[in-house]
Structure formats: C-alpha cells, structure tokens
Amino acid sequence: MAPIDASRLRADLLRPAGPYAALDVVSVTGSTNADLRMAVTEGAEDRTVLIAEEQTAGSGRRGRVWNSPPGAGIYCSVLLRPRDVSFARLGSLSVVAGLAVTDVASALGVDAVLKWPNDVLAGPERGKCAGILSEAASSDEIAVVLGIGLNVRPSPVPVSPGPGGLPATSLREQGARTTDRTQIAALLLAALADREDSWRQARGDLAAAGLLQDYRDRCATLGQEVKAILADGGTLFGVAVDVDDAGQLILDTGGRRRTLYAGDVVHLRSPQQAS
Fold first, then answer.
1. N or C: at which end does the chain have fewer Cβ atoms within 10 angstroms?
2. Residue-range domain boundaries for the chain
3. Residue ranges of the BPL/LPL catalytic domain (predicted)?
C-alpha cells in the first residue's frame, strides 16, 4: 500500500494555491492532536495540518483510544485559530468536521450518516467509519486542534466496538470508488476548508453559516430514542429532537426538553420502531 504523498498534498493545498499554511506527513507519532497542541505554544500558524501514517496513542473522546494501524486510515489533525469565533462556539467544529467527512463519503459513493456528537457511521449496518476530536489548546488567543480519524481499509487487528456496540467499518468495506489515501486526504482537507470557512465567516453560528440544516439532514441521531451518558457519569433517556445553532443536542425527556453540550449518546430505537 502506497504511503500518503505529502508533496502532492502540499502542491494542491498549501497557500497561495490552497487554504492551508503548513502540512506535514509523518510515519509514526503518538497522537497528531497532542503534537499540534504542543505546536500551538510554539507559534504554529492557523490552518496547520499534521497527518500520520500510524499513531501509537491516538485518542478519542473521554480518553478512549482510536485504533490507528499503519496504512489503514487517515489520521489527521488541523490547528485552527478562528479569532472572531467565541470560545462557546468552538464545540460546533465537530459538526463542521462531520459534514466534511460525509461530503467525502458521498463523493466516494459511500452511504454515511452522522451520529451526534462526533461519529460518522457508514453502510447498511451503520458501522463506525470515522471519529472526530476537537480540543481547545492553551494559547494567548483562541486556538483549537481538530482531529479526524477515518478508516480507509479494514484494520489488520481486532477493534473493540464503540459505545452502544457499534462495529468498526471502513470506506473500502463500504465500496468506496478509491482507497488511494492521498486522494482521500486531499478530498477531506478541501471539504473541511470549505465547510470551516463558512463556519468562520458566520462566527461559529451553524445556522448563519448554512450548515445546520445539512447537519440535521445527515444526523441519524435525530428522531432516535437515546441514552445519553453525561460527563459526570449520569445517564439521561429521551428522544433526540433537534440540534441547535451551537451544535448542542436537544432531547425530549417525557415532555421536558434538555440541551446537551457534550456526552456520549447510544441509539436505542426510533419512536416509529417503538410503536
């Protein structure tokens, strides 16, 4: 399997021809997100990209490990410095990234949907194909590192199911038109830049950016009866009825509406299935 071609990506994506300031591909690292969080303190520029062929300590939400074997996926982090976006709006970047991943899946002929807050599910069995981790970085100005792990080929090692027993899947298993990781990385970064530019111009307001309705249309969580696992370890049951312009999930918990900024969500069944 061919390695990701950094020179080809730079030619297409770096300024002035493209939207990014810097782009590196490394053979192996612990975590691309951790590397870029460190780079923030060293003055790395807005829209700096780091891609790894392999991660030995790739991370997901709530301290989980993201399986990152060599050559099987795209493990990518982007440093963003959206100066005109308030800190409270940064959480909606997961929505932006999720839309970009589904844009790529669609371009490759793969059926994919979004699971709030940060998963991309693909195929008729809705296996987990991608995960997103957005982390604010310590800096004198607003900075965030946005990580995307995208499964291109099946993992050569067993992968534990995610919350709710979600199996892992990959673009190849779902019939993608290509598994050329350089081409897919270029598509992903271009889609992300396009979506993120709209988000930034709207100061992080998903509705004003024209992104909220796209997310609602692609979000498989909406209409589902769910169990929400909260940050404090508590649980909440309800029907997911909407996502607001900050990317927060709105649950109907028996006539009372609750807004979730963060947490894990397990799909149980839809109200239609329950009837």
1. C
2. 6-215, 221-274
3. 12-200
**What is the per-residue burial (b if ≥16 Cβ within 10 Å, else e) of 228-245?**
bbeeeeeeeebbbebbeb
User: Distance from CA of residue 58 to its chain's centroid?
Assistant: 14
Cβ contact 167:145 at 8 Å: no
What percent of the chain clears pLDDT 70, i.e. is strictly above it? 91
Mapped onto helix, strand or coil, the DSSP state of residue 223 is: coil
What confidence tens digit (pLDDT) does each residue in 158-217 have? 666 665 668 899 999 999 999 999 999 999 999 999 999 999 999 999 999 999 999 999
Topology of 221-274 in CATH? SH3 type barrels. (2.30.30)
**What value does the mean pLDDT take over residues 210-238?**
93
Token pair 């900075």 is at which residue?
Answer: 143
CA 26 to chain centre: 20
Q: DSSP character for 55?
A: B
- The CATH architecture assigned to 6-215 reads 2-Layer Sandwich (3.30)
**6-215 and 221-274 share one fold:** no
Residue 32 CA to residue 52 CA, distance in Å, equals 7
DSSP state of 29: B
Residues 78, 96 contacting (CB under 8 angstroms): no
